[in-house]
Write a structure and sequence with these properties.
about 350 residues; mainly beta; 28 strands; Beta-galactosidase, Chain A, domain 5; globular
Amino acid sequence: MTTSRKGRTEVSRAPFGATLAGEPVERFTLSNARGLEVRAMTYGGIIVSLLAPDRDGHGADVVLGYDSLDGYLRDTQHLGGIVGRFANRIAAARFTLDGTPHALTVNDGPNHLHGGRRGFDRVVWQAAPVRTDDTVGVVLRYTSPDGDEGYPGTLRTQVTYTLTDRNELVVDYLATTDHATPVNLTQHSYFNLAGDGVGDILDHLLWINADAMTPVDEHLIPTGDIVPVAGGPFDFRALTAIGDRIAVDDEQLRHGHGYDHNFVLNRGSSDLVHAARLLHPGSGRTLDVHTTEPGLQFYSGNFIDERVIGKAHRAYRHRAALCLETQHYPDAPNQPGFPSTLLRPGAEYRSRTVFAFGVKR
C-alpha cells in the first residue's frame, strides 16, 4: 500500500479461480482516492472490472466480463484481454518476411485474428505489483516461444497497468525478440459508460481524432487504401451519437455489420496524441484515449448477443459495449503502404495508451 498526497492509493493481489497449466491465476486490484478501481487477472492480462464514478459520485463497473474464470475460458469475444502477438487480422493467415513465407493459425474465416486460437489473452502471465508515491500498478510478463501460432522468433513481452491519482489507466507495452517478427499489441476491453449490462452504446457520443480510415473487404481485411471520412458515417471529428448513422446504407458498414474499422489518427508532432473521447450523457462519464499508436480500431460490439452471458448472469444485448483498440493497422505485414509492425533483434517494441476517466457535469 502507498499513500499519495490526495489520499490512499492501493494495490492488492488475491487468487482468481484455478491453476492453469501449473500456473496460479491471480487477480490484482488497483484503487485510488478518487473512486476509480481496476481489477485485472493474470490469465490473459484481462481487465475483469473497472469501477468509475458518475457526475454524482456513484460508481459503476463500465467494462463487460464474467464472474468467474470459467466464463473467460469459454469466451469468444476477447473480453478485456491483452491481444497479441498481432492485434486484428492478417489476410489468409500468412505473410512473407525476408523472403521466407510464414503460415499462421487460421481462426477467423480464412484469416488470422488477434494472435490465433491461443493468443496472449488466453495464456497465464507472470505478474507483480508496482508502486510509486502517487501511482499503483501491476507488471505482467509473458514469453511467446518461437513458432507460437506460426510466428517466428521468441518474443518476450511486458505489459504494465498503472493507475494514477488523475483517474488515468496507463498501459505500457514492451517487447523484444531474437528473430524478426511482426508485433502489434492492444488492450481489448469493452466499454459501456452507463454500466456493465446497462442497455447498449448507441446513445454514447464519440469523437475520433482522424481525418481518414482504412476501408475493408467483405472479410474485414483492409484494401490498402486510406480514404477521407469527411461527410460520411465514419466522420467522428465532432462528438456524434454512435447510433446516428450506424444503420445507414453504406458498403463499409455492411462489411463490418456496423463499425469495425481502423481509423488513421491525426498524429501531428506529439508522441502521445489524443485519439478519442467517449461520453455517456445520462451518467456524465467520459473516457479520453491517448496513444502513441498510429491507428484506432472502433468496434461497436456488432457480434455481441444474448448468447453472451456476463456478470451477474446477465445476457448481454446486441452492441452492449464498444472497443477502442489502439494499434498499428490491420494486415500490416502484407500491406507495404502501412506503418511497419516489424520488430528485429536488438530493437524494442514500445507503445503507450492512456485511458483517462472523468465526468461532464
